[in-house]
Design brief:
Number of helices: 3
Structural class: mainly alpha
Number of strands: 0
Length: 114
Amino acid sequence: MAGHRRTRSAAPGAAAVPPVPARAEGQSGPTQRAGRRDRRREHFARRYAQAATPAARLEAAHDYLRGAAARRQPNPARAGQLLDDLARQLLAAGDQLLTWQARERTNPTGRKDI
């Protein structure tokens, strides 16, 4: 049933289940667990915190974004524009990383004449 909350009846002599605190004015009623958006964000935050390298953090962020983009959007044109803008920024960042890499000497000890 939608919105139905299960409750456990307390065993004789056991403490009763504590009531859920009421929410502030203007907020919806009590809930038992975080919403889907909050759970996904928390999962991403854990993965991001556990990542040891910048590449691993980027991978976690990419997976989070890909999961969000795969779901139906209320305004597909706006979501598409956001993703296109992000793709252009990622391409620019990749170009910059490759430029830095090309400027780096491949042999740090230098050339030795024989």
